[in-house]
Amino acid sequence: MLGTVIDWLQAPLSGLPAMVGVIVWSIPVSVFALWVFGKTSNQDKITAVKNKIAASLFEIRLFNDDLRAIARAQWEITGHVLRYQGLALVPMVFILPPLVLLMVQLHMFYGFRGFAPGETALLRVELATTGGPRPDLAIEVPEGLHLETPAVWVPSLGELNWELAADAPGDYELGFTIGGTTATKTVSVTDRVVRLSPERPPSGFMDQLEWPSEPPFDRDAQIRRITIAYPEATMEIFGWSWEWSFAWMVVFFVLTMVFAFALKKPMGVEL
Amino acid sequence: MTTTTHAHRWSGVWVGTALVFLVLGAPATADAYIGPGAGFAVLGSFAVIFVTMILAGVSILAWPFRTVWRMIRHRRKSKPLVKRTIFIGFDGQDAQITERMMAEGKLPNFSRLAERGCYRRLRTTFPSITPVAWSSFSTGTNPGRHNIFDFLDRDPRTYLPRLSSAHIGPVEKTLKIGKLRIPLAKPDIRLLRMSKPWWTILGENNIWSTIIRVPITFPPDKFYGAQLGAMCIPDLLGTQGSFMLFTTRPEDEAFQEGGIRVSLSRNGSATSFEATLLGPENSFFEGNPPMELPLTIDVDPESGTATAAISGTRLELRTGELSDWVKLDFKVIPGMKVSGLTRIMLTETGEHVSLYMSPINIEPGKPAMPISHPSYYSSYLEKKIGPFATLGLAEDTWALNEQITDDGTFWTQTQDVDGEREQMLDIALDRLRSGALVTVFDATDRVNHMYWRYIDEGHPAAAGVDDPEYADAIERQYIRNDGIVGRTLDKINDDDVLFVLSDHGCTSFRRGVNLNAWLLKEGYLNLKPGADPTQPWLQSVDWSTTKAYAVGLVGMFLNIRGREARGIVDPGEEAKAVKRQIAANLQGLVDTETGDIAINEAFDTDTLYRGPYKGNAPDLLMGYNHGYRISWDCASGVVAGEVFEDNVKAWSGDHIVDPRLVPGILLCNHEVSSADPHIVDLAPTVLTLFGIRPAAHMDGRPLLDKASLK
Questions:
Q1: Mutate to test the interface with B, among A30, A78, A84, A93 (most CBs of B within 10 A)
Q2: Which carries the bigger pLDDT value, residue B532 or residue B24?
Q3: If B639 and its partner were Cys, which of A6, B384, B533, B660 is the partner (CB 3.0–4.6 Å)?
């Protein structure tokens, strides 16, 4: 359900540069996080401990001829900083779970980019069993994609690997047949910011939490997981390109901090 | 109960923390993110540690150079006899009351200190008032050398009163853009106290001092040490303390001593009211219009409560209960504001609604005027103890005099200010490894002034005394002081020197003397034909025929030709003769109604003072007898009325009398050499304790030396 909501909210942003989408998402996230922080943290204690830190900093300035006073102030600052971080832990308990769910969803949009025609990527199918001869697995590749290499069987890992090539833009579905059962895996060849599915995960809460774009395989299915190595997304920041799947997250983090800082006074929250 | 709550809270934190780590530990994508709140905490902490390390690093690296520089620049000439000298001042603590309470065993810590060292009566200055006495304490000189003779001086060009201790001038240079006036310089704020305070001399000798709320330190001195200013720091309106009364009551007479009445108007319903608070002048705009803040009040008359909203703060008020400090932010221009602190109290919610607002103190965190040295010292203290009173006369005596507040409210104000002061003392004492420390507590003086009617049977102001809770207010204050002394004694070391002192005592103020009415009666002062003698500030006086007049609280001036704008008395022999004549007439002046002597002696300041500034002093200083003081009317320049009148105000005790009647106190943990010490002796004493020869201009003599410390 969360995926559907995110898809719906993300739809207007799909044609825009990734940076714009990250900026747009960071604003409501900042507001939400600030609100929760304000409601769940002990604001009086945070104010008090920040005042103590500031007082100790003043003290270093005031008694700058007295090395013992400086050392004492530093020691006190360390204690206050630890206490400050301890106070920030409580709201983290409330902020992180929903935020992690959102981030995982956004990572499917901003962590990777779709294939461009002519690009190739590793397609990996992990089976439930390892060892033995190569299993009889048939792969069906739709028009617009093709396999560059035959399957390579790694018995110790129970993996079959292909090199998959994109020919034309489009949303595709690969078909896999093994032991009379079939499975599918989506592939996107696009230059828009859309939901991608680098992995169709095995059954399990954590795997499903991390790779939410496609339904997981059944617990007793012969295929455990299928992954496609999408290229890492590129963030364009003031003309500088940063290619890293977590780059958007760093930008997002900085932006939420900036917006939170800007909004903390209007919202009456002490950070 | 509390332990259980804490346990619950901490178990919740641990479970939550475990959950967070579980969530973070699983999906790799979330590892990099911790959210803005926690992000600030983490990054902020790193930033703090980073800044701290840089500050510490710079301090450590610069320390040897600074030390060498100080040694070269301020070479110590002799060896200090002590490591720390600590002064605790209780403004106005009376010797007679102290001695009686010590004898009754009510001040055990004063007695403990006296047994360890000594107790003496401390002679005070002529006149025996706070700004003069503490200036003599600071400089070790008589008023002729430090130039502070009274709270008020007069402008000889206009005969109008002006503040004697500080000059606050406007900004002279501005850039005009339309109606906007951008200041290109700082306003001219100068301390008018002359001579050099002992902490400046200590600083020149590389010895640190922390000086907290010693009167007449606005603007603060610049020296090697820290100082929080006191009297005469103004409020945010630039006055010496103007309370406000927001009320639905119809306009009444103006407050006599310093209050502003603001009309409350209904705001759509019978229980909602609004008003506009006119704040400080905005010098950024032509005509200096006041900065405004809207105030709204929703009253619940049945419960006697109200919700007030001002400057983004909502306050739940209960009749008769003073709020905590409320921060008021006045917008100057976009991006710039001036902040103040006030305390608010609902005073009535029946037929009429009234709200009291204390004078708006300069906010110490980001002060609008120089109230401390270094400038961030007040911010440092604010971070340490929270918001605190900065106004020179922090306790609102005027509102109690005008019966806007009551004894209970005033008691709360004085005790809260005293509490703030003790926290400052604790912090300073804890940080002082060597050097001097002074902290002055004002509450004793204010409590003496306002509650004397409780201890003086038959006092004219005693008619309004109906709350037995405050009958022993003065004793309670002295006992509180005893606690401060006890806690300080417990914290000092054997090689520290501790002085506990007061600048003067106190006595009853039953009857006021209108000196201008007396001068009128005796023919020394004349009125303009047809003038209204009830006009304030001597506006009714005919200067062309007037030989003498009284301005301020302590003395009388001759209208001297060449000195005063319209002087008629020749400065030579004629002035001496007039002065002699007036002094003779005033000596032993009898109150015709009571038959008591009102004035013991009128002192000629020409013989009383020595020094370059004695020409600025009043020509005669009044030595009132017990029970007498300048009248309220005379203090505000009103000539009309009887010479003697009852004082029926809450301000019922005073010390503007013959200084010999109201000595202060001096206690020390060492035996002092003099049997009759004077407040000017303390400056040379502290210099001697730090191995510095007292300055030649100082009038006092050291009370301790190497021999007496052994």
A1: A93
A2: B532
A3: B533
